[in-house]
Design brief:
Keywords: DNA-binding, Transcription, Transcription regulation. This protein is of the alpha+beta class. It contains three helices and three strands; from the N terminus they run βααββα. The radius of gyration is 15 Å and the shape is globular.
């Protein structure tokens, strides 16, 4: 999730679409934990239905930076046609 949020804040359904194979229940539980840990912020817009947006806090960006580098390195390594 930290990698999905690295570029910009996303609404719940956008996050769900960006993470293949995750259930709504697991996404909600994980987001709740990340908010409690101070890695992600949550904003609820008082609309009907409510629109909930998530983004990285400063701490989340700090923690996510090395994870992003690792993710990018793994993605390059596993991509078709890569040497190695």
């Amino acid at each position: 999730m930290l990698i999905s949020l690295r570029g910009s804040s996303l609404r719940f359904y956008e996050l769900r679409e960006s993470i293949q194979g995750i259930s709504e229940k697991m996404l909600a539980q994980t987001l709740r934990a990340l908010v409690q840990d101070g890695l992600v912020w949550r904003e609820v817009e008082p609309t009907t239905p409510p629109q909930v947006t998530y983004g990285l806090t400063g701490f989340g960006r700090d923690v996510g930076e090395p994870l992003t580098e690792l993710f990018d390195r793994i993605t390059r390594r596993l991509s078709p046609g890569s040497a190695g």
